[in-house]
Amino acid sequence: MARVRLEHITKRYEDVTAVDDVSLEVADGEFVTFVGPSGCGKSTTMETVAGLTRPSEGNVYIGDDEVTNLAPKDRGVAMVFQNIALFPHMDVFENISFGLRLRTYDDEEIRRRVEQAADVVQLEGMLDRMPDELSGGQRQRVAIARAIVRNPDVFLMDEPLANLDAKLRVHMRTELQRLHRELGTTIIYVTHDQAEAMTMSDRIAVLNEGRLQQIAPPLTCYNEPANRFVAGFIGSPSMNFADGELVADGLETDNFRVDLDPGEVPGVTVGDAVTLGVRPEDVHIASAAGDLPAVTAPIEARTDVLEPMGDEVFVYLLLAEEAGRSMAEDPATASDQLLMSVTPDTEVHEEQDLEVVLDRSKLHLFDSASGEALRHGLVERSEPESGETSKAG
Ligand code: ADP
After folding, report:
1. What residues does the ABC transporter domain cover (predicted)?
2. CATH number at residue 279
């Protein structure tokens, strides 16, 4: 086991900066996932750890050693890729043990390691099968076992589940978590799938355009995204955003306003462009939001399309000014639309006028220019109604 440290890693190709000054540390035994859209530099960053790519600038450390210029085989890492290249003419045992034979371990040691690895990935009893007798998931487990037998300090996995069908992917997610628990080995995992990143990792490193946006535990990225990019990328369906302007006593967007004291939003002043972010689950039908201690003033909306998902229903809302207009292509990111998720027993239908409110404790504010987060959650201004006792006394 070993920790991994990247120090100011930049990788330039002729006209592309694939990785742009990325520094991060993965602790010994930690499971860290690099996540971001296609082309954001995830694989290239991992390849600098593997030794498959030499960075243009910066250093890579594994354990206490600088390994920037070491060959892959001398780094104590084992890799599992999306495309599982099993040798078709070799059975499972031979496929798993192939790398060990190259390293001239004796037969007894090889058998011991292969059986142990097969046990971890639950392939016992299948060691004499040929690859074409295996399912996609079993083949992927062979590839993982092949990495395990090498007893690496660090596992590097690049989209290892991408070619599996959806159900198997979810199953393999839990298997990888179990594997991590059993082996305790440091794992760096690459995926473009934010759900995969959220469910498996101790921490996720969100990348965009070669730059590290945030590295934090999944729920921190979800609840306290560092910027608008992370806010929009993590979470499905995506967070709603509404661009607005900070005024003397609130934030005004095209279609609604949110009361707030600009003095409580650090780094901006009245007149600045501020973007409000709210997740679909934090939008509520006004008449059903009685339990929430702090909500915005009601916002007039008209329901458009409903998407019943079984455990929840996605309700696409057109805000008052827009009612009647057709939907833009990306509904959740346009200021004049709002996506709300409600429980299936909620009484709501298409083309219904209603009022919605936003949970103030779950609102996010971003600097519209830089995208940086300004604030997560707005504390309700204390305006106790007559007859109510204030907690502060
Ligand atoms: P990701 O894994 O996030 O999809 P990559 O790390 O593969 O992204 O690529 C990051 C960027 O670097 C992309 O724009 C890609 O086209 C570019 N890139 C990657 N490898 C090379 C290469 N060998 N030559 C030129 N450009 C490359």
Report:
1. 4-234
2. 2.40.50.140
